[in-house]
Amino acid sequence: MPPELFDNELIQYKLTETEHADFVRSLNMNEDETCVEQTPVVFVEGFLGPGKPAYWGPLEKTFSSSDVENNKNQKLKNRRCIFVTPGCGSSLYDRAIEIFYQIKGGRVDYGEEHSKKSGHSRYGREYPGLYPEWSASKPLHFLGHSLGGVTIWKLQQLLASDIFPDYLNPHPDMILSLTAVSSPLKGSQSVYLLGATTDPAGKVRPFSFGAWLGRFVHIYEYLDIKWLKSMTYDFNVDHWNLSFRKNWDFSSLLPWNIKKATNTLIEESNELMQETANSMCLTYGLLQCLYKSPWLNCVDNAPYDMTIHAMKEANATSKTFEKTFYRTYVTSISYEDHVTKYHYPKFSFSLPIPIYFLSRFTGSFKFPEDTPDPPVSYEEMYKWYENDGICPKYSQEHPHHDCSLDKCKHQKGLPEGAAPYKIEAGIWDVWENDNTSHFGLVSVCYESHKQRLFFRGYKEYLDQIDQLDNR
After folding, report:
1. Which of 17, 160, 284, 364 is most buried when burial is the number of CB atoms within 10 A of its CB?
2. String of DSSP letters for 168-213
């Protein structure tokens, strides 16, 4: 994960591995040879993703473009891969905001209204920018797994709103393609099984698995062991002020220390200084968090955003855009029992035991009878039973609750060769894959044949989009 504050002098000389490779290749190029940069692709991990490039497998080999030319007979560079690291347990809103500033650069601004409503600080970490030239004229491809796909969908909706500052020129066309793999675009009943409720305030059952997982995160963030975070997980929840450093460092409340801290920022402003002073006072003690977490028991976290009722509300105001290419890869491992009409996972030695049991519960889930205004009626619940162990197949297809020719088109399997298949912008291109678990395509813990086919097809898909895009 990126550090909280970067040294300006170090930023000028610190290159990523991809940038270093591009730089070396540019030195070795013949002066008469023109080499065109392909549209970079951004990778977004899902819930509790470790934030490591290894999550996606050997992408350098997959996206190699040696001896490949475009329709103008120009040699193409290897496609650049950009890895973003939003909070792995944060809300869709917070994750989308963090991705924007990680790519564009600058200090994360969650917005005054949102931060006050949620109860956390307005400003987050500062980033140098992974691709500062990102704009509607220089868009990016995005690939997200699980919650990562839904995060990209949320990001595009925010780009179409007035959330980001005008001087950064936000626009929904900044996303050239959105590809979601095993993503709960309509939500998932699995989070109800783990502790979420239909309460509009986002309450969690106090002794559920999700509540204990949240307590672990609070202890982990309270201890704030820097070397451990750099090696394993960094939940990126600094704006919630959970660390003991902010709970016990009373000297930071002194006016001269606050001013000294804010003077280290690239652009100093009175508003930011005041926010820094306020956020130092807005801290949550460990005992308070272990008893009733203000972060977990609210609507500003990932488990709440993955509920069916939260996504139903979000999708009611969301829309697709005519210049963006949408594709979803849908996975499923369950089959229907002809007697009960429930779904059960197909037996496999490679299927982890927790995923097996979660699939069984997801395939037979019903909202309690005393649930006021359930998000899915009893008659419609059967649509949500087929699943990949975590997400219902119905939810992975697209955000719409009905299908039509002007909204989506469905195919079986994995695309094999992009040339004979026509792609269209503004329509959800759905590829259904049976006998594939939630982690069957991504993450690449081992490079299986199906995973190789997936990434090969995805590369061809991006090449085809770049050929069609005239921006």
Report:
1. 284
2. G---GGGEEEEEEES--TT--THHHHTTB-S-TT--B-TTSHHHHH
Contact 103, 81 (CB under 8 A): no
The long-range contacts involving 240-244, CB below 8 angstroms and separated by at least 24 positions, are 240/120, 240/121, 240/284, 240/295, 241/120, 241/121, 241/279, 241/280, 241/282, 241/283, 241/284, 242/218, 242/283, 242/284, 242/289, 242/295, 244/286
Contacts of 332 (CB under 8 A, 6+ apart): 386, 387, 388, 393, 432, 433, 434, 435, 436
| Amino acid making up residue 292 | K
DSSP 3-state of 125: strand
Look up residue 325 and give its amino acid. F
- Describe the crossing of helices 255-262 and 270-281 by its angle, rounded to 10 degrees: 120
Task: Please say whether the beta carbons of 348 and 399 come within 8 A.
Answer: no
Q: What is the C-alpha to C-alpha distance for residues 224 and 226, in angstroms, rounded to an integer?
A: 6
Nearest to 355, CA basis, from 232, 193, 235: 193
Q: Nearest CA to 315 among 375, 253, 268, 389? A: 375
With CA atoms as reference, report the closest residue to 330 among 247, 443, 437.
Answer: 437
Place of tokens 């204990």: 212
Q: Nearest to residue 300, comparing CAs of 102, 45, 107, 113?
A: 113
Backbone angles phi, psi at 96, to 5 degrees: -65, -45
Count the alpha carbons within 13 Å of 417 in the hemisphere toward its beta carbon.
Answer: 2
Complete domains list, the chain, with CATH: 8-188+298-468 (3.40.50.1820)
pLDDT in tens, the chain (471 residues): 443 333 333 333 344 544 544 544 443 444 444 567 889 999 999 998 888 888 888 787 777 654 455 555 556 778 899 999 999 999 999 999 999 999 999 999 999 999 999 888 999 999 999 999 999 999 999 999 999 999 999 999 999 998 999 999 999 999 999 999 999 999 999 999 888 888 888 888 888 888 888 888 888 888 888 888 888 888 888 888 888 877 665 444 445 444 554 454 444 454 444 444 444 345 566 777 777 778 888 899 999 999 999 999 999 999 999 999 999 999 999 999 999 899 999 987 778 888 899 999 999 999 988 888 899 988 899 999 999 999 999 999 999 988 888 889 999 999 875 456 788 999 999 999 999 999 989 877 667 888 888 998 999 999 899 988 655
Distance, first Cα to last Cα, the chain: 32
Q: Phi, psi at residue 467, to the nearest 5°?
A: -70, -35
* Integer Cα distance of 381 and 141 in angstroms: 34
Give the predicted TM-score (pTM) of the model.
0.84
Report how far residue 364's alpha carbon sits from residue 409's, in angstroms, rounded to the nearest whole number: 28
- Cβ neighbourhood burial of 287 (10 Å; 0-12, 13-18, 19+): exposed
